């Protein structure tokens, strides 16, 4: 099975490390030729995860996306959702053929509010059976440090998900398989919004007691939304306390590595959205997601008052303190 990786941010770099540590040869699409030369000469990404070292014999790097796709049976896409359209829009509609596509994206495409599989189906006529998502509580920095982590590989074709997951499994990475492809992706999008809110609460100097109540309520709201967005069964048999759902919400709300939490913390401390974006200099998917999810929930009449309040703080100029005074009244 020949893997291609698309993207060169922190998550793409961590996934490239896992695959090459496991002796897979990878074809890796990196946008910038200077980054490619640096990685080839110095054997680490100049911008992210400096401690992740790479063996040149296990990878071929190129800024030619068509070439990387042609060489690969399985494409792992780890580009932030805001850049998906600019990266993929020039490709021919039949470029993916029957290749398997694994999304590592935890966001919705801004503008269309689509999950990546919906975008691929619309633009490239790909099949849901060939699509998988990597989800679960996993910060790239901890993968680079080889701290034990758990990733869930989700796909309607569970057998194929298992085969792909097998290439990632190793002594610091345990893999789990799941078939709830829409549910896990929406949970991954929502947890970023709630983590951004947890950061706001922290910036406003709420304490751990409040935070635990906030996260417990956010978890219920997340599950309510995910259940409504299902396309197949009602999800009754699914374990929403599993790591792909609750686990990822917890790590993103609590971890000091979380960019969403960092972004929210700055908002809580009084930074404007622009200032927080400049200061962070990395992607906090929860910002755009708050608007996309707010719109989707409004259109579908789904009540998600915590996420809606975070949207109001970020996009509608509601002061963070009044937004959280409102959230206080919602919690049980
Ligand atoms: N970092 C992490 O620990 C994890 C990230 N994810 C998800 O992975 C996805 C990728 O995020 P990260 O790697 O963390 O992002 P990052 O903030 O580490 O890197 C940003 C990436 O975007 C690229 N970029 C910047 N401007 C661009 C443009 N105009 N066109 C195309 N690319 C551009 C940069 O070159 C860089 O590769 C996100 O959806 C994120 O939610 C999922 C799990 C863990
Ligand atoms: O998805 C993640 C952890 O599972 C990464 O979260 P952040 O984007 O907030 O850093």
UniProtKB/TrEMBL annotation:
Binding site for NAD(+): 140, 259
Signal peptide as annotated in the record: none
EC class of the enzyme, as a word: oxidoreductase
Residues bound to NADPH: 10-11, 31, 48, 106, 140, 259, 283, 285
Pathway: Membrane lipid metabolism; glycerophospholipid metabolism
Keywords: Cytoplasm, Lipid biosynthesis, Lipid metabolism, NAD, NADP, Nucleotide-binding, Oxidoreductase, Phospholipid biosynthesis, Phospholipid metabolism
The UniProt record lists the keyword Repeat: no
Domain Glycerol-3-phosphate dehydrogenase NAD-dependent C-terminal: 180-321
Catalytic reactions on record: sn-glycerol 3-phosphate + NAD(+) = dihydroxyacetone phosphate + NADH + H(+); sn-glycerol 3-phosphate + NADP(+) = dihydroxyacetone phosphate + NADPH + H(+)
Keyword rRNA-binding tagged: no
Record function comment: Catalyzes the reduction of the glycolytic intermediate dihydroxyacetone phosphate (DHAP) to sn-glycerol 3-phosphate (G3P), the key precursor for phospholipid synthesis.
Name this protein carries in UniProt: Glycerol-3-phosphate dehydrogenase [NAD(P)+]
Organism: Panacibacter microcysteis
Organism taxonomic ancestry: Bacteria, Pseudomonadati, Bacteroidota, Chitinophagia, Chitinophagales
Name of the gene this protein is made from: gpsA
